[in-house]
Amino acid sequence: MTAAGAVMWGLTFLAVAGGAVLAGIGFTGSYTALVNLGFRHNLGDFSYAFPVGVDVGIVVLLALDLHLIRRRTPWPVLRLLAHGFTAATIYFNAASAGSIANDPTGSAMHAVIPVMFIAAVEAGRRLVIRITRIEAGRPSEGVPLHRWLLAPWPAWMMFRRMRLYGIDSYQRAIELERERIVYRVLLERDHGSDLRKAPADALLPLTMARFGLSVDEALALPAEAEERARLRAERREAFEADLAARADARTADTQIFRLRTQGKVEAAGFEVGAETATAKARAHARTVAAGREAEAVMAAAAAEQEAAEARRRAAETDQAAAETEQAAAETRRRAAETERQAAAFERACAQEEEAAEEARLRAAEAARAAAETEAAAAEARRRGAEADRQRALAAHDRIALEEASEAARLRAAEARRRAAETEMRALEMEDEAKLTPSARGARKVARMILAAYGPDHTGPVNPEAVDLQTIANALGVSIATASQRRADAADLLASGYSTPVHAS
To answer: Which of 73, 91, 136, 211 gives the lowest tally of CB atoms within 10 Å of its CB?
Structure first.
C-alpha cells in the first residue's frame, strides 16, 4: 500500500470513528437537555421518550430519504422534514439553558451539542448519495460556493437549469454555457449586434438555452423535426394504405359473398329448372300418350270410313253388275227373238249374228267388270274387316289402359294409405321421443325420400329424389330451411334410418 493510500485509509478511519464519537456525544448531550426541558414543561415521564422521538426521527427520515434515492424514487419532503426536526432540536437544546436572550452563551453551548450530531448524520447522508449516484453513472455536482458569491444571478440560472433538466455534472453545465457564449459571439460577428436579423434556425441555440440544450442539440432540432414529420407522413401513408387494403378486402369479401349468393340463386334456379323440365317431360309424355290414343281413334275412324266407302263402292258395283246382267238377259232375249226370226229373215241373220257377237263381247266385258267390281268389293270387305280388327285392338288397348290406370289408382291409394299410416306411426314415435321441430322435419323429409322410392326398394337412395319446393310446401318453411332439412334427412338415411313400417 502506498503512503497516499495509507493516509486515505487513516483519514477514513478517523472520519468514521470521530464521526461516531461526535454523534454519540451530541445525541447524549441533546438527550439530557431535552429530558430536562420536558420535565420543566410538564411532559412527565414522556420526557424520557421525547428526545428519542426528535433525534431518532431525524436519523430515520434521512435514512428513508437515502433509501428512496437508492431506489431512484427520491421524495424531497423527507429531507425538508429532517431539516425541520434538526432546527427544532437545536432550538430545544438552546432553550434548555433558560432564556436565550438572558443567557445567549449558555444557549449557544447547548445548541452546539445537537449540531455535532446533525453534522455527522448529514455527512454520512451526502457520502451515501455520492456513492449511489456514482454507481448509477450520474455523479452529481452542484454549483460551487465561489460561483454563487462571484456571479449570483448566472449561478442561480445555472442551478435552475441543472435541476430542471437533470444536468448532474457541473462541468457539463460549464461546457454548455461556454458553447452558448461562443456561439453568440460568432452570430454577432456574422449578423451584427442586432441578432434579430439572424435566421430563426440560427437563433435556436440561444432560444433553447433555458431548456438545457447544447448548441448542437438546438441546431439539430429542425432536422429532427423534419425527420419526425417524414416519419409521421410515412406512418400516415402506411395507415391510409392499410385502410385502403382493408377497404379492398371488405370489397372483395362483399363480392365473394355476392358471387356465392348468386351461385346459390343459380343453383336454386337450376333445381327449379330441373323440376320444371321434369314436370314438362311428364306432361309431354302424357300429351304424347293422349296423342297416340287420339291417332289410334282417328285411324279407326278413317278405317271405318274407308270400309263404308268400300261397301258403298261394292254396292255400286253390285248394282252395275245387276244392270249388266239385266242387259245381258235383255240381249239374250233379243238374240232368241233374232234366232226365231232367223228362219224368216236369213239375209238379216249375219247382221243379227254380228250384233249378237257384239252383245256377247259387251256381256263378257260387263262380266269382267263385274268380276273386278267383286274383287274390289272383296278388298273393301277385307279392309273393313281389318278396320274392325283395328277397332277391336284399340278397344282392347283402351280397356287395358283403363285397367292399368285403375290398378295404378288403386296402388296410389294403397300407397297413400300406407304412407298415412307410416306418417301417423312416425308422428307417434316422435311424440314419444319428444323430438324438436327441426328433428321432426328432418325425419319427415327422410320418409318422403323413402316414399319416393317405394316400399320394395333396397339399396341406397338419393336425397334429391324429392325437390326442395315440395319439401318447403310440405313443411311450410323457406327453400334454405328445406335444403337444411334435406341435408339432415340425408344424414339420417346414411345412418340407417327407415320408416316405422319397415323398421326391424
So the answer is: 73
> How deeply is 385 buried, as exposed, middle or buried, from its count of CB atoms within 10 A (0-12, 13-18, 19+)?
exposed
For residues 76 and 230, give the distance between their C-alpha atoms in angstroms, rounded to a whole number: 42
Alpha-carbon distances of 485 from 139, 167, 267, 409, 459, rounded to whole Å: 82, 79, 17, 30, 22
C-alpha distance across the termini of the chain, in Å: 109
Q: What is the largest CA-CA distance in the chain?
A: 226
pLDDT digits over 216-246, tens only? 888 888 888 888 889 999 999 999 888 888 8
* Residues 106, 110: Cα–Cα separation, whole Å: 6
Q: 3-state DSSP call for residue 129?
A: helix
Q: What is the mean pLDDT of residues 411-418?
A: 75
Contact criterion met (CB below 8 Å) for 118 and 26: yes
pLDDT band at 502 (very low <50, low <70, confident <90, very high): very low
pLDDT at residue 356, rounded to an integer: 63
Answer whether 0.85 is exceeded by the pTM.
Answer: no
Q: Could you tell me the three cell numbers for 392?
A: 277391336
Contact 89, 34 (CB under 8 A): yes
Q: By the 8 A CB rule, do 76 and 101 touch?
A: no
Nearest of 253, 169, 164, 244 to residue 209 by alpha carbon: 164
The C-alpha atoms of residue 177 and residue 160 are separated, in whole angstroms, by 13
Nine-digit cell string for 395:
278397344
Question: Distance between CA atoms of 354 and 344, rounded to whole angstroms?
Answer: 17
CB 316 within 8 A of CB 377: no
Neighbours of 61 (CB within 10 A): 20
Q: Give the C-alpha separation, 183 to 202, whole Å.
A: 10
- For residues 360, 361, 367, 368, the Cα torsion angle rounded to the nearest 10 degrees is 160
290 is written with which cell numbers? Answer: 293422349
Q: Which long-range contacts (CB under 8 A, 24 or more apart) does 432-438 make?
A: 438/485, 438/488
Length of the chain: 504
